[in-house]
Design brief:
Distance between the termini: 30 Å
Radius of gyration: 20 Å
Shape: elongated
Order of helices and strands: EHEHEHEHEHEEEEHHHEE
Strand order of the largest sheet: 2-1-3-4-5
Oligomer: single chain
Structural class: alpha/beta
Strand content: 15-25%
Amino acid sequence: MEKILVIEDDRATRKALQELFEPEGYLVEVAQDGAQGIAAFRAGRPNFVILDLRMPKVGGQDVCRHIRKESEDVPILILTGSAAEVDRVLLLELGADDYVTKPFSPKELLARVRAVLRRSRRAPVVEQLYFDDVSVDFLKMEVFRSGRPVPLAPQEFKLLKYLSVNSERVVSRDQLLNDVWGYNSYPSTRTVDSHILNLRQKLERDPANPVHILTVHNAGYKFIP
């Protein structure tokens, strides 16, 4: 099930969007201001973001910038009060994929979201990975370093595969817990840290000074092939 994050300060609009998308099979998460929206995005990355341009506290433009710093591939559709507010060049610079003016046609909005999702499906899953002196075959669950086999636990394979699919992007600990383990099984971010440490010990030339599996302070981890 694809998840849509709605960041909108107007309660009636939030409710209308839930009633529009949930019957179509989407999971809808709502946030009532920009700060909540950024937190919700970091806690569990959605497949799509619908973002109001004008909000208190943290405005839509700043939210869009924050999201784009953390992910380049999650589509963002901007909701704006009037066409006069829209600067298409600015939206492109911010990283938005589309916009709709209020009041919007529910059918048109649904069609636009579907169209953007079709254009931005994630890249095919990585089945083989090469970096430094390491080669990985995810189908066979085999890892070699300098030609010698390296034993990885199944969850270490899964974590490495997720990082490689999202290479050069910052991935939060909460996102890893949600997408790799599932919150019900491993509720602590210490689990992520220990598995990252294991991967570094097995795959980095100098685990104390990694160059591939990096820590991004106050944000999470990033994999550089």
